[in-house]
Design goal:
Layout: E1 5-8, H1 13-24, E2 29-33, H2 36-41, E3 47-51, H3 61-87, E4 90-95, H4 108-128, E5 133-140, H5 154-164, H6 174-186, E6 195-198
Parallel strand pairs: 1-2, 2-3, 4-5, 5-6
Keywords: Oxidoreductase
Family: Belongs to the short-chain dehydrogenases/reductases (SDR) family.
GO cellular component, one term: membrane
Length: 205
C-alpha cells in the first residue's frame, strides 16, 4: 500500500501535474485547492478532493500573495508535521521559485514571499531532520502555468511575454517539475535532496 500524497494548489499548474504524476505512480491522493470542481475534473482514482483556501482570508493583491505563498506554506506544514514527527517518518516538499534567491524587477512582493519560503524550509528542515522527517524545496524557473493571470498590469504581462521570446517563445512544461518532485520523493527516507533548481535550458536568469 503506497503512502498518501497531499497536494495543495492541485487544480492547476505544478500542483495539477504533480497530482497526475503521483496518481500514475499508484499513490492515494488528497487534493486541496480553492476550486473543487477543477480538482474533481481531474478524475483521478483513489483520490479525495477538498476545497480549502490555504491563506484563509480575503485580502488585497499583495496581502493575498503573502497569505497564499508564505502563510499557506506555514499552514500546510503545521497541519502535517506533528503527525510525521510522531511517526518518525514523512516528507514535505515546498514549491518555491528561482525568485526565492534571485530578485526580479516588478516582482518585489512575489520575491519576498519566495525568499521567505526558502528561509522557512531551511529552518524547518533543521528541526524536522532530528525526527527523520524530510523537508525539501523545489525552485522552478519560468513555466507554462496560470501564474501571470494573477496580475492586472499589462506592462508586466507584456514584459514577461517579450522575455519569454528569448527562450524560443515557450517556457518549461509543468510536467517536468512534477517529474522532478516525484524523483525527490522517491529517494530513500534517509536521503534528502534539500533543494532542486529546475528551469528551461535557455532561461538566462
Amino acid at each position: 500500500m503506497k503512502k498518501l500524497i497531499v497536494i495543495t494548489g492541485a487544480g492547476s499548474g505544478f500542483g495539477k501535474e504533480m497530482a497526475k504524476t503521483f496518481s500514475e505512480m499508484g499513490h492515494p491522493l488528497l487534493l486541496i485547492g480553492r476550486n473543487k470542481a477543477a480538482l474533481d475534473q481531474l478524475g483521478l482514482v483513489n483520490t479525495l478532493t477538498r476545497s480549502v483556501d490555504v491563506g484563509n482570508q480575503a485580502a488585497t493583491e499583495w496581502e493575498r500573495m503573502i497569505n497564499v505563498n508564505l502563510i499557506g506554506t506555514l499552514n500546510g506544514i503545521q497541519a502535517v508535521l506533528p503527525g510525521m514527527t510522531d511517526r518518525k517518518s514523512g516528507t514535505i516538499i515546498n514549491v518555491s521559485s528561482i525568485a526565492g534567491f534571485k530578485a526580479f524587477e516588478n516582482h518585489a512582493a512575489y520575491c519576498a514571499t519566495k525568499f521567505g519560503v526558502h528561509g522557512l524550509t531551511e529552518t524547518v528542515r533543521l528541526e524536522a531532520s532530528k525526527n527523520n522527517v524530510r523537508v525539501l524545496l523545489i525552485s522552478p524557473g519560468a513555466a507554462e502555468t496560470p501564474l501571470l493571470s494573477h496580475t492586472t498590469r499589462d506592462d508586466i504581462k507584456d514584459g514577461y511575454h517579450a522575455w519569454k521570446q528569448t527562450m524560443g517563445g515557450i517556457s518549461m512544461a509543468p510536467k517536468e517539475v512534477a517529474n522532478a518532485v516525484a524523483f525527490m520523493y522517491a529517494m530513500p527516507q534517509d536521503v534528502s535532496i534539500r533543494e532542486l533548481v529546475i528551469a528551461s535550458t535557455m532561461q538566462d536568469n
